[in-house]
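Morning!

This is the sequence you dropped in the shared folder:
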Amino acid sequence: RDTIWTQLGPNNIRAFGVAVHPGTSQQVLYIAAGNGVHKSTDAGKTWRITTGWRITEVQCVAPDPRDLNGVYLACAYGIFRSTDGCASWKECNTGLASTFSTCVIVDHARPGVIYCATEGGAYISTDKGDSWSRMGLSVDGIRTIAQHPGDANVLFAGTENHGIYRSTNGGIWWNKCEAGIDHPTFYSIAFDPQNPSTLYASGYVTGVYKSTNGGDSWSRKNTGLGVLTFHSLAVDPRNSARVYAAAYWGGVYRTDDAGETWRRVGLGDSQVWTVVIHP
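The structure's back. Tokens below.
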């Protein structure tokens, strides 16, 4: 059965990311957009823009699961933080070599720790973004960072032109994941929440890669895909066999057999930047 899609949020915006704030009964939603961050407090029925003209090209928005008023964003001008439910935003770029950032995530185990992916490398902050230190990953052009859902010390990074890297000690040391990977640019890395040794990765003309051994080796799972560039992946936490892939000018694809076969499930040939499964 094809998926039915309903538009939420303002018309005529470039939406790069979406997030649901945990602990709000799924009522508080955010959109990271070209013109800033949009927020809804009624599950998407109404929206308001929370940022001014100085904050644009927002690539990612990350609510703090420990703080109902805490939110981070990553944009072309760096990392910004709100501590008052998006009423105001503070620039948090101290220590960053490059402000162009595409991803920010909140550590699920250690309060105050956040990570960001920037044009100038992968960074960690232990003080909620007040200051940053570059992690041990030597390459630039980081596009995404993903944290193991069970082991907070395990991190993966997808890069522009340098492939996928993995750290098992919280970002101090990194190793390149090369076995089975034939492409250099990755925009998304997604864990299977029920079995985190299974991961999926995608990027520029990569199709979808899958690992079943924690990233030691990978294989391509492209049967049924009509396009090969994907910006985002999401594994259904209730059904590990179901995975969604957001395509560049190709709508949304879904697999119900853990990547063995894919089919398009709507949105035509649109450019889908992010897919998120509602809690």
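Headline: Residues 152 and 252 are 30 Å apart (CA to CA).

More detail when I'm at my desk.
O.
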